[in-house]
Amino acid sequence: MFLNKRKVIFLTSIFLLVFFLTINDIKSQKLKVIDGDTIHLNGEKIRFTGIDTPELKQTCILENLENPCGITAKQILINKIGNNTVECINESKDQYKRTLAECFVNSESLSSYLVRSGYAFAYRKYSKKFILDENYAKDNKLGMWSMEFEYPWDYRKNK
Length: 159
Fold this sequence. Notes:
Mean pLDDT: 88
Radius of gyration: 21 Å
CATH architecture: Beta Barrel
Number of strands: 10
Structural class: alpha+beta
Oligomer: single chain
Order of helices and strands: HEEEEEEHEEEHEHH
Number of helices: 5
């Protein structure tokens, strides 16, 4: 059966429309940043492995003033992600049934970025992966390293 020119154009248009809709669907994400080390991505709760960030209500002291370091950590993550696609490498589940993963934007580890910025800590209890990033932030007095702070795990224990 021979297709006339109109049918070819019509079928090609349908094919291209389906193709572009599929591509956009793959790229679109439902993303919500919960705090500095937890996101909801396409309905899945993901906790970043190997790091710990201050709790949302946690504050630090900078020049005798309270600084909302927990909120700042969340905002730094939001700003870093921007409108970019987040890709995660799932590692396991934790006791709260959250997915434990390392997540990336443009091939850059969000965990490494947060630790190196001084708004997350290498969570040595679970991983040694981000110690060099933490040493960099500490040596350069970045983020929380320029303030008086309580480690997040101590803050949670004392609450």
